[in-house]
Design goal:
globular, alpha/beta
Length: 144
């Protein structure tokens, strides 16, 4: 199994994605601090929204095999600067969340472009609420 660290803005769906990957009941929970699980590291949205936390992300990434940049597919903006993923000496993937709420293919492509620009090597589109394409991500991460 690959250990993944999830990074994204407040409300991007990191914690909900964590719950889906762990086959837990989906319920809203605001992540207040970095949360470590056996195979998932869930980071607060404030860590990408405030550059002063970037060093904490780099240090925490030492415990991960894969960095997952999480982008809400309904959000017209991105918090990830170009080449953001290059600061990590790890594999970087992108995860477009909330694809069930995405109004058009154009919006989804925009989200994928945000993630590619940030340095994601592969991009997955998922819906944690509908469990849509979660299995593809689990397979990639070798989750059972």
């Amino acid at each position: 199994m690959k250990k993944i660290m999830l990074i994204g803005s407040i409300g991007a769906g990191k914690t909900t994605l964590t719950q889906a990957l762990k086959n837990e009941i989906i319920e809203y929970k605001k992540t207040q601090s970095i949360e470590f699980d056996d195979y998932i590291i869930d980071t607060p949205g404030e860590y990408i929204d405030n550059k002063v936390y970037y060093n904490a992300l780099v240090v925490t990434s030492a415990d991960a095999d894969v960095i997952g940049l999480v982008q809400d597919s309904t959000d017209e903006t991105s918090s990830f600067p170009p080449s953001f993923g290059n600061m990590f000496n790890k594999e970087v993937i992108g995860i477009c969340t909330k694809i069930d709420l995405c109004e058009s293919e154009e919006n989804l492509k925009r989200s994928e472009e945000f993630l590619s620009s940030a340095g994601a090597q592969y991009v997955f589109g998922v819906s944690a609420i509908n469990n849509e394409k979660i299995e593809e991500l689990k397979k990639y991460l070798d989750f059972d």
